[in-house]
């Protein structure tokens, strides 16, 4: 029984038809959360004792960093499933997850830099966390470049799946190494204020993280759906689906 | 049939895995020795870039000594990277790569033999030349032994990890730059621990932690990398 | 054959194979049984999918549809046993030009884990393909036909019983072709299998032919009833 479900999930057609109904819901709920939490966080959450109002960019920086990291694992797991069970759909998910993850990572870097200016007085600091996020961006760019370099889609899928799996093994090692490197070189003056966070600040942050996860899910699904249409363009059901749309 | 003895199977023979490993090892070493000129290229690159540092930064021994551990490591890493593109290229072009993958022995063995030769012909020479360049970079005396040891352990991981990138890009005509792009982020941990081992020794601290970590990276790479390399090679010949 | 009892049976079966290249279906519905002693010639115009099929047969690629079995088991579950019996000559010769013919053959023998009387047998094999006296020259100095012969020398050296040969007769002169035909006959008589693609007419009693043009994809396959 479980296998039947698994095989159906692997069918692009089934996936496409099943997710059609979810899309508007996912988008509207995630936007609703993100917008209302933004108002809550910008207008009503208390000011930070040390950083003043500038800390509020945390509500963008932290969720994007977390989801950017998660997106890498989504990509790698999808790639692994694609290699082991030769599931077409998961290869498509892997392919579209890479650019989405890269954009989120770039956003995390950008918000980090904006946050850094008032806190540290400079846009760029070789802080352990920022350095790790930068390397994560390089890992994403590598997967995207590899995916683009092959003209044969099947080869592109296999190559980027192998690379993202290798990256997955490496990410914890890279993070630990960078952490260790940072503790060696850390100047005493720069320290994150992460000791404890007041619950009035924490709740909007958690809500924002959920909002970003939902938005990521929507982006991933809608990109997968258009990838499905592109790759299955020759089949009857896609032609019918496109006609219905038009 | 008179020729029967020539073709008939002699029955299960002794350790075939070791024979396949040695056959590939010997073959690649022979080829490397016949192309001696190419062996020197990464070393010359190493020397050239290190020569650029005093010209670009400052000839003051104090400044150079500060930069030495990191620079020597970064440039050794780049030199390895440059040599990687050729690792599987000629085998791919003349068809011996697909023959190697069709060998009944697990591709792990043959891949290990190839990467081992790559390490012998790039990692080891780079390691041996590094102290010489250390002199040019005014590396303090305490740094030489850790430099040798960390490079010896670290270049092994560099060859193994780099071979994954080489295997992924071997079927692409213009894979060189892409190869660097996908491999370099994976080199970060090796660089951090290699360079910091040398620095720790210069500053008078123990550096065995760094060497131990480099050793464990190497162990992990020996176990896992050949699987990824073999998978990537199978993908590359399947077109 | 008298000595066939100590050799296990060989059987390759292709079950409803379809292959595609760059999303284009080449052929479909191909089912063939290949048994010990068979010589199978693949026919078809350029681009019909002969090379693609041969690469599937040696497990370098996978067919889009269908299954290839060796002694009743799917190939990928029986890979070691299959590859221990396999000799493949692709359209790339698989010869390192920096090495001499003898060195090239030594590597192949090493991959098979074979070193009984090796030097003597390599010399004989090179003599058989007319390269006697060239064994220590670098292959770089040999002509295209001679390089091809180095690869063909494997047919006289290897103990593999399944030969999969992609256009083995290109760049080979008439006398060479006749000699190879005798080698194929010998191999088939001793219970081996030869699968090859060539446009030449072969004079062999055990010859079976498959023309890929008989298996052109049907309109349903092309329209993707999947």
**Distance linking N and C termini of chain B:** 41 Å
Count up the helices of chain A: 9
Shape of chain A: globular
Going by helix content, strand content and strand pairing, the class of chain A is mainly alpha
What is the general shape of chain B?
Answer: elongated
Instruction: Show the largest interface.
Output: B-C, 40 and 41 residues
The topology string of helices and strands of chain A comes to HHHHHHHHH
Largest sheet of chain A: none
> How many strands of chain A?
0
What report would you give on this structure?
The complex is a heterotrimer of chains A (246), B (239) and C (226). By secondary structure, chain A is an all-alpha fold. Chain A has one domain (24-44, 53-187, 197-238). Helix content of chain A is 81%, strand content 0%. Chain A contains nine helices and no strands. The radius of gyration of chain A is 20 Å and the shape is globular. Chain B is mainly α and 239 residues long. Chain B has one domain. Chain B contains eleven helices and no strands. The radius of gyration of chain B is 20 Å and the shape is elongated. Chain B starts with a helix and ends with a helix. Chain C is an alpha/beta fold. Chain C folds into two domains: 9-85 and 161-226, P-loop containing nucleotide triphosphate hydrolases (Rossmann fold, 3-Layer(aba) Sandwich), CATH 3.40.50; 97-160, no CATH class. Helices cover 31% and strands 24% of the residues of chain C. In chain C, helix 3 (101-112) packs across helix 4 (118-128). The longest helix of chain C has 16 residues, at 174-189. Chains in contact: A-B, A-C, B-C. The B-C interface holds B 1, 3-4, 6-10, 13-17, 19-20, 22-24, 26-27, 30-31, 34-35, 90, 93-96, 98-105, 110, 237-238 and C 3, 7, 55, 58-61, 79-80, 83-84, 86, 88, 90-99, 103, 106-116, 121, 124, 156, 159, 186, 190.
């Amino acid at each position: 029984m479980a296998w039947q479900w698994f095989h159906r999930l692997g069918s692009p057609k089934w996936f496409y038809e099943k997710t059609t109904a979810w899309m508007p819901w996912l988008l509207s709920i995630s936007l609703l959360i993100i917008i209302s939490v933004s108002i809550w966080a910008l207008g009503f959450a208390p000011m930070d004792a040390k950083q003043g109002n500038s800390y509020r960019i945390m509500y963008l920086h932290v969720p994007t960093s977390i989801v950017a990291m998660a997106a890498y694992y989504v990509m790698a797991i999808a790639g692994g499933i694609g290699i082991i069970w030769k599931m077409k759909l998961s290869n498509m998910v892997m392919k579209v997850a890479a650019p989405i993850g890269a954009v989120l990572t770039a956003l995390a870097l950008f918000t980090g830099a904006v946050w850094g200016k008032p806190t540290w007085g400079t846009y760029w600091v070789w802080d352990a966390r920022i350095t790790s996020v930068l390397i994560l961006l390089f890992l994403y760019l590598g997967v995207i470049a590899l995916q683009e370099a092959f003209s044969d889609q099947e080869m592109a899928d296999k190559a980027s799946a192998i690379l993202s799996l290798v990256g997955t093994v490496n990410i914890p090692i890279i993070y630990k190494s960078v952490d260790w490197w940072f503790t060696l070189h850390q100047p005493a003056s720069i320290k994150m204020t992460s000791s404890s966070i007041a619950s009035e600040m924490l709740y909007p942050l958690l809500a924002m993280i959920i909002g970003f996860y939902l938005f990521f899910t929507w982006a991933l699904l809608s990109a997968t759906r258009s990838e499905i249409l592109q790759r299955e363009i020759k089949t009857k059901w896609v032609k019918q689906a496109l006609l219905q749309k038009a | 049939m008179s020729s029967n003895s020539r073709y008939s199977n002699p029955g299960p023979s002794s350790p075939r895995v070791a024979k396949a490993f040695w056959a590939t090892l010997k073959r690649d070493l022979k080829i490397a020795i016949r192309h001696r000129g190419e062996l020197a290229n990464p070393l010359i690159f190493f020397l050239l870039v290190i020569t650029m540092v005093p010209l670009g930064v400052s000839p003051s021994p104090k400044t150079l000594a500060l930069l030495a551990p990191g620079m020597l490591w970064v440039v050794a890493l780049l030199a390895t990277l440059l040599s990687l593109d050729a690792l599987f290229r000629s085998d791919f072009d003349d068809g011996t790569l697909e023959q190697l993958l069709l060998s009944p022995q697990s591709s792990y063995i043959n891949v290990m033999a190839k990467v081992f030769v790559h390490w012998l012909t790039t990692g080891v020479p780079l390691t041996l030349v590094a102290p010489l360049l250390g002199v040019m970079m005014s590396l303090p005396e305490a740094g030489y032994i850790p430099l040798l040891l960390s490079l010896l352990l670290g270049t092994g991981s560099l060859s193994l990890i780099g071979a994954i990138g080489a295997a992924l890009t071997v079927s692409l005509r213009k894979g060189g730059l892409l190869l660097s792009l996908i491999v370099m982020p994976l080199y970060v941990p090796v660089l951090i621990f290699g360079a910091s081992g040398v620095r720790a020794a210069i500053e008078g601290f123990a550096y065995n932690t760094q060497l131990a970590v480099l050793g464990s990276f190497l162990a992990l790479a020996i176990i896992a990398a050949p699987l990824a390399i073999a998978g990537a090679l199978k993908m590359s010949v399947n077109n | 054959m008298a000595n066939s009892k100590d050799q296990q049976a060989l059987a390759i079966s292709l079950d409803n194979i379809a292959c595609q290249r760059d999303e284009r279906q080449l052929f479909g519905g191909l089912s063939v049984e290949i048994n010990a002693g068979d010589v199978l010639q693949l026919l078809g115009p350029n681009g019909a999918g002969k090379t693609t099929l041969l690469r599937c047969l040696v497990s370098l690629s996978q067919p889009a549809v269908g299954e290839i079995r060796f002694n009743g088991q799917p190939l990928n579950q029986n890979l070691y046993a299959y590859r221990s019996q396999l000799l493949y000559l692709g359209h790339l010769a698989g010869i390192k030009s920096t090495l001499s013919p003898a060195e090239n053959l030594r590597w192949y023998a090493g991959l098979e884990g074979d070193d009984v009387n090796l030097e003597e047998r390599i010399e004989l094999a090179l003599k058989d393909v007319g390269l006697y006296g060239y064994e220590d020259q670098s292959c770089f100095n040999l002509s295209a036909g001679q390089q091809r012969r180095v690869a063909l020398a494997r047919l006289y050296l290897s103990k593999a019983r399944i030969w999969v040969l992609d256009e083995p007769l290109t760049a080979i002169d008439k006398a060479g072709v006749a000699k190879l035909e005798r080698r194929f006959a010998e191999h088939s008589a001793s219970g081996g299998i030869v699968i090859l693609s060539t446009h030449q007419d072969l004079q062999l009693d055990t010859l079976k032919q498959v023309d890929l043009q008989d298996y052109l994809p049907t309109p349903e396959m092309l329209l993707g009833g999947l």
